[in-house]
Specification:
The chain is an alpha/beta fold. It contains eight helices and six strands. The N and C termini lie close together (9 Å).
Length: 215
C-alpha cells in the first residue's frame, strides 16, 4: 500500500441521512414523491447523474440545473446546522496513515462545494494530499474515473492504492480502477452490496493499518 483513498459520505461523516432527507424534500418541492429505499439505489452516484435519472423517471418538469442548485443549497444549510461529528475511529485512521507517511486522498461523488463544507466543518482539509469530486471527471461512480484521478494526483499506481467505501457503486468503482477496497457497513447508507470488497468491516476501529498487506 502506497496510498489510501477515502470516500467521504458515509465513511468520513455519517451524512447519508442528510442527503436522504434533502433529496426527498427536493423531489417533493419539484412535484413528485420518492422514498429513502428508492434513493438507496443512487448512493455513491454524482448529483448530476442521479438527478438526470430521477428527473426522467419521476417526470420532473424543471431543468436539472435548477434541481441541483436547490438541493445543494439545502444540503449545505442542513450540514451547517447539524451536530454531526466525523465517524468514530476515522480521525485515528487518518492520523495513523499520516504517521506512516502514506499519502491520503478523498475521491467523493459529492460536489466540490459540499466536500469543502464538510472538511472545513471538521477541520480536516489539511490532512488530505488530494481531493477529487466525481463531478470533476468524465464519469462518476460506478465508473473508476474519480479513483484513477486521485491516484494520478497522489503520484501512485492504482494497484498500490487501498480505498475505503460504503456503497456498492463505490466498491465497483474502486475495483474497476484496479484498487484494493475495504467495504464499511454503514447502516445509515441503506442496503448496499459490498460483496466485491477485499475486506468488509462493520466498524472503522476494525481497520488495522499494519495488517492491510493481507489485502
Amino acid at each position: 500500500m502506497k496510498a489510501f483513498i477515502f470516500d467521504m459520505d458515509g465513511v468520513i461523516i455519517d451524512s447519508e441521512p442528510i442527503h436522504f432527507e434533502v433529496e426527498i424534500g427536493t423531489v417533493k418541492y419539484f412535484g413528485a414523491e420518492i422514498t429513502q429505499q428508492q434513493l438507496e439505489n443512487y448512493v455513491g452516484m454524482t448529483a448530476p447523474e442521479m438527478w438526470n435519472e430521477i428527473r426522467n423517471e419521476y417526470k420532473l418538469a424543471h431543468p436539472v440545473e435548477e434541481i441541483l442548485a436547490y438541493q445543494l443549497e439545502n444540503k449545505i444549510k442542513a450540514l451547517r446546522a447539524s451536530e454531526l461529528e466525523p465517524i468514530e475511529g476515522i480521525k485515528e485512521v487518518i492520523e495513523g496513515l499520516k504517521q506512516r507517511q502514506i499519502p491520503v486522498g478523498i475521491a467523493s461523488s459529492s460536489s466540490p462545494e459540499f466536500i469543502k463544507e464538510v472538511l472545513l466543518k471538521f477541520g480536516l482539509t489539511e490532512y488530505f494530499d488530494c481531493i477529487v469530486s466525481g463531478e470533476e471527471v468524465p464519469k462518476g461512480k460506478p465508473a473508476p474515473d474519480v479513483y484513477l484521478k486521485a491516484a494520478e494526483q497522489l503520484g501512485v499506481k492504482p494497484e498500490d492504492c487501498v480505498v475505503l467505501e460504503d456503497s456498492s457503486h463505490g466498491v465497483t468503482a474502486a475495483k474497476a480502477a484496479g484498487m484494493r477496497c475495504i467495504g464499511y457497513v454503514n447502516v445509515n447508507s441503506g442496503n448496499q452490496d459490498l460483496s466485491r470488497a477485499d475486506l468488509i468491516v462493520s466498524s472503522i476501529h476494525d481497520i488495522n493499518l499494519d495488517d492491510l498487506s493481507r489485502l
